[in-house]
Amino acid sequence: MLLAGGQGSRLGGLTRRRAKPAVSFCGKYRIIDFTLSNCTNSNIDTVGVLIQYKPLLLNSYIGLGSAWDLDNPFGGVHILPPFLGEKEGSWYNGTANAVYQNYEFIDFYDPEYVIILSGDHVYRMDYALMLKFHKEKNSEITLATIKVPWEEASRFGILTVDGDERITKFTEKPTQPDSNLASMGVYIFNWSTLKQALIADASDDQSQHDFGQNIIPQQLEQEKRVYAYKFQGYWRDVGTIESYYNANMESLREGHFLNIFDPKFRIFSNEDILPPHFVGSTAKIENSLVCNGCIIHGEVNNSILAPGVYVGKGVQIKDSILLPYAKVHTGSVIRKTIVGENAEIMRHCNVGAEGRSASDQAGITVIEDHHIIPEGSVIKEGENVYRPQVI
């Protein structure tokens, strides 16, 4: 069950018109590609995708799931929007409630195990190895965990384990964490255990109906066998502008986590097929990812250009991320900036952190989708430029 309904308000203008899992990442991908690809690479062939916020783009993007080989007749990918429950007009009211509302979908397949996933994390993981651990421990619930920097620990569910990796304490987003072992938001449940937990939670009027806030702590109180699977690979929660920007920039480093040429663990995408990118005679590109359909006449350094981006003559792009079909016209300079989808920066603009590198403390400038920056504009570092709403 893939939870893909988050609004992602901390991503500002990047999610005003789309759910966080649908945001472009690392050029040709969208954030949800990583979790769906993990399912395919882990031989999971039945996936329920729970969509709520701005569902149209995600719905059309996923389609029948053929891009991830999830269009098989024995299960496949299923888009599961909210439906009217006991309270007329209700939507998903928490992560546990989202799964509870789709109880009949799970029960139809009557699985032995159910894996709960998030559609807004960037990582590569073989869930089959986690399931193997779950079985070996005779676990009822297993949480994928990873160590995070101490200064970020309060953003996550933090847990303590004993010598056998059994979880003894779990606290959701503690103000003073006593550990930096964090939940990744990836859970494996025995279906019988999850079924009972969801039914009990649904009848509790005091519950927030959330896995981290309610389900996991309650199961620990009931002394269920809950274990921590310690994940050793790359994982990022890209829920803020800073974490989203940094994760994109990390993909430009030598030996980066996203080996798109690895035949054993491919990352699949459903982006439109575009012609090859074009590099003009005046172009200069260094240490950058340039996707299909781009037209480049200027300089691009340490940046990521998603499909269909246009860079005009005399343009300088540095330490930046340009999302699909963004355009930057003659003579403009863009530094440490995220340029939204279909946004357009006209001639001779100066945008972002002047004369600084991506590694310093300069703020990240964000240009919202479809916004047009007028000719000659100067946009200071750290500004969030939004497109005016039309009522």
How does this model look, in words?
It is elongated and about 65 Å long. By secondary structure, the chain is α/β, with parallel strands linked by helices. The strands form seven sheets. A seven-stranded mixed sheet has the order 5-4-1-6-11-8-12, with helices on both faces. A six-stranded parallel sheet has the order 14-17-20-23-26-29, with no helix packed on it. Strands 15-18-21-24-27-30 form a six-stranded parallel sheet, with no helix packed on it. It contains eight helices and 31 strands. It folds into two domains: 2-252, Spore Coat Polysaccharide Biosynthesis Protein SpsA, Chain A (Alpha-Beta Complex); 278-385, 3 Solenoid (UDP N-Acetylglucosamine Acyltransferase, domain 1), CATH 2.160.10.10. A hairpin with a 5-residue loop joins strand 9 (157-161) and strand 10.
Helix and strand topology:
Blueprint: E1 2-3, E2 24-25, E3 29-30, H1 32-41, E4 46-50, H2 55-62, E5 76-80, H3 95-101, H4 103-109, E6 113-118, E7 121-123, H5 127-136, E8 141-147, E9 157-161, E10 167-172, E11 181-190, H6 191-202, H7 211-221, E12 226-230, E13 235-237, H8 241-250, E14 278-279, E15 284-286, E16 289-290, E17 295-296, E18 299-301, E19 304-305, E20 310-311, E21 316-318, E22 321-322, E23 327-328, E24 333-335, E25 337-339, E26 344-345, E27 350-352, E28 365-367, E29 372-373, E30 378-379, E31 384-385
Parallel strand pairs: 1-4, 1-6, 4-5, 8-12, 14-17, 15-18, 16-19, 17-20, 18-21, 19-22, 20-23, 21-24, 22-25, 23-26, 24-27, 25-28, 26-29, 27-30, 28-31
Antiparallel strand pairs: 2-3, 6-11, 7-13, 8-11, 9-10
Helix pairs in contact: 3-6
Function: Involved in the biosynthesis of ADP-glucose, a building block required for the elongation reactions to produce glycogen. Catalyzes the reaction between ATP and alpha-D-glucose 1-phosphate (G1P) to produce pyrophosphate and ADP-Glc.
Enzyme class: transferase
Domain Glucose-1-phosphate adenylyltransferase/Bifunctional protein GlmU-like C-terminal hexapeptide: 281-357
